[in-house]
Amino acid sequence: MACELADLQQQVREALADGRPLRLRGSGAKDFYGEAPAGDLLDTRGYAGVVAYEPTELVITARCGTRLVEIESLLAGSGQMLAFEPPHFGPEATVGGCVAAGLAGPRRAAAGSVRDFVLGVTLIDGHAEVMKFGGQVMKNVAGYDVSRLVCGALGTLGLIAEVSLKVLPRPFEEATLLFHIGEARALEQLNQWGGQPLPLSASAFHDGTLCVRLSGAAAAVCAARQRLGGEPIDAAQAQEFWSGIREQTDPFFDGAETLWRLSLPSVAAPLDLPGRQLVEWGGALRWLKSDAPVGQIRAAATEAGGHATRFRSQERAEGVFQPLPAALLAIHRRLKLALDPKGIFNPGRMYPGL
Amino acid sequence: MGDNPPVGIGAHEKDFSQVDKARLVAALSRILPPQSLLVDREDLKPYECDGLSAYRELPMVVALPDAEAQVVAILRTCHQLGVPVVARGAGTGLSGGAMPHKFGVVMSLAKFKRILKVDPLSRTAVVQPGVRNLSISEAAAPHGLYYAPDPSSQIACTIGGNVAENSGGVHCLKYGLTVHNVLRVRGVTIEGEIVEFGGQALDAPGYDLLALVTGSEGMLAVTTEVTVKLVPKPLLAVCLLAAFDEVNKAGNAVADVIAAGITPAGLEMMDQAATAAVEEYVKAGYPLDAKAILLCEADGTPDEVEEEVARMKSVLAQSGATEIRVSTSEAERLRFWSGRKAAFPAAGRISADYYCMDGTIPRKRIAELLEAIAGMEKKYGLRCINVFHAGDGNMHPLILFDANVPGELARTEAFGAEILEMSVALGGTITGEHGVGYEKINQMCVQFATPEIRTFHRIKAAFDPAGLLNPGKAIPTLNRCAEYGRLHVSGGRLPHPELPRF
Predict the structure, then answer these.
(1) Which chain A residue has the Cα nearest residue B446?
(2) Staple B49 to which of A11, A254, A303, B56, CB 3.0 to 4.6 Å?
(3) Residue A138: left (phi > 0), alpha (psi -120 to 50), or beta?
(4) Which candidate, B452, B433, B434, places its Cα nearest to that of B496?
């Protein structure tokens, strides 16, 4: 049912008055992610619609309940896109959920993450205030960057009611190439290519096959194809493949084992962990399907200079995100208190007590 | 919360007049050798202002640590004694962000100038905060890499300052700001805790504190180490110079370039007054009869550039450019840029003083703002020349004045304030890349309402509960907004009506 900003604010105000936690939720496409949701449901989908979109300004502003597919098809109509290529994880996924989760897709290493494209938000905080941070312009350093702070905070710092995102033109040309090589060689190759002026926009390695996507001006893609060699695959097949990686519908993601997301320096050596792995982002993202003990996986990620997230598992267990060092945890707690002193927003969704 | 009185967090400026200099100096002497602790007036003088010299203040002392342990000890000491600390890099900032506090310590990070690591394979560099922006690119150059953000002060400004200000540059439309090019910031809180924001990977667990501290103007922590991303140097860059007989057409051409799916490596605009000023100075060969010129740059591989230049040329021609020149050599490209890069010194040459503004507006409003500025020139009796990072709507009007003429500085400040307030009214912001600092603290009250400002103070307190890091900058107190608001009644409605008036 459609609602106004004031209705959302009223719901927050009432919850605040009753000291009643709220579970902020769009379509629930990412219900699996993070710690178990708690609190009374606040469905954001009633507050939907694109507020402003001008292709020449490279900015789109939409209400939190707007479906991602709606935004993407509107942008496509003007030859533009969300460059961070967000996973939807469901047909009804909303832009509010996308920004709150802060998850980016295959283009992330080349183009940037969700937060890199967030220009501004309208936020309802835990004092039930409606506030605007950032704006619709590319460069803006007035005040602390609250818009980026709430991106990826899993709704624990407030309700993102509206968001402005920078958009980019779609590439004029794309091509996907296959290489049959081992993991160590693939990682080395990806990092070397990363240091050269090549239009790499995505990569995925699994089980002896490296897939690389090139995007850009026709001349650049054509020249890079000639230089890199490899085996081209046709456009429809390529699109299906990258969508399978992004949405985790690729057969790699099948199976009952827990799916771990390891975010590492791109140069980290192949990880010797039980289970199957798929490498994205030029080596900086390693998906692991494994039932190995948490401690072993976390230790390997830390050793490699990164962190591990229990991304999806059949049974929910605590400790989804890598524990924070004490000094950082203290800052997190104080920030939570600053924006949500009564702890009404998505309590515990990220870490206990946040 | 309109019924809340302005008490508590962020309501008032804190009073630090009780700081005991002798006690402070004695405590700091136990941490720093004598040559690293400046206490005499003549030694303090060089630190009295940053790049915005209109605002000056002598600090109580200047501390020049050269090790992180000293930074920790200095901050702990200041925290214990309740002394304000202003961190400073090269002092090239343009908003008074590093202006000293009268009762505080200026902590210069100038001695932290080591590049700790350049790793070509991971395309990262680990540097100390006092490393100059350009020297990172110089160190990365042998590997065909560079650090992308290039503020105009890049030969002098430091990476620590860039992090504090979230600095941009002429290439940020395509390559991003500091926040997009930094992976990790190691810093020290006012309590002397060492913290790391971000990490070696592309993301870190928890809240995005890296984004929060970037651009926080030295209010949250003191940076002691930064890991930056390096990107491949484009093989070729070609610049187009397009002339227009109406400012409006140039503004529309900017929109047309973007609409055509082009992301130029740089897209700059100068008005006629600006081209005339620089032409006299650097002889860039700019067409002086044009009402505005655009500089539009393509970079990449030679094939890619050729394709993009053809596309740019056709768009600019359709948008009504009266003349389009394409650089045919690196020397010519640099000559095209020489005028734009000389805009500030050229202003200094034709005028005793100039005041640089930094608002950002939606691109489509550029012509509108220029028209309004022309009106303000008459209103204030001052000249203004205009240069823009047109690609991202960030404009730098340079107001020309003479500080020795009584009343001109005050008129200039009023002129500047009106430009910034108009930027907000046009849907933009008071600062695109220079920061709020001390300079634009009043305009923050125009851009933000009480709840947002209160939130900023709460965030500040989450890092620095005692409010000792760079007090009086970046975020105005609510009382300041109330006072400023009294002068700026619009539509009969007082901003921040809940606050008492003085």
Answers:
(1) A142
(2) B56
(3) alpha
(4) B452
Domain assignment of residue A278, yes or no: yes
Q: How many domains does chain A have?
A: 2
A236 touches chain B (CB under 8 A): no
Whether A5 contacts chain B with CB within 8 A: no
| Token output for A11 | 């719901």
Does A74 share its domain with A142?
A: yes
Same domain, A186 and A51: no
- Give per-residue pLDDT as tens, B429-457: 999 999 999 999 999 999 999 999 999 99
Q: Which domain holds residue A140?
A: 5-169+333-339
Q: What digits encode the pLDDT tens for the residues B137-195?
A: 999 999 999 999 998 889 999 999 999 999 988 888 899 999 999 999 999 999 999 99
Let me know if residue A289 belongs to a domain: yes
CB contact under 8 A, A148 and B123: no
Do A141 and A110 reside in the same domain of the chain? yes
Among A168, A281, A331, select the one facing B462 at the smallest CB separation: A331
Distance CA B401, CA B377 (A): 11
Do A206 and A74 share a structural domain? no
**Which of B200, B261, B447 is nearest residue A172 as measured by Cβ atoms?**
B261
Residue A51 domain-assigned (yes or no): yes
pLDDT band at B7 (very low <50, low <70, confident <90, very high): low
ipTM over 0.90: yes
Strand A159-166 and strand A118-124: pairing? antiparallel
Is A108 in the same domain as A221?
A: no
- The answer to the question of residue A328 being in a domain is no
Residues A238 and A251 in one domain: yes
Cross-chain residue pair A145–B212, CB shorter than 8 Å: yes
Contact assignment for A197 to B394 by CB distance below 8 Å: no
Record the tokens describing residue B38, joined without a space: 């400046």
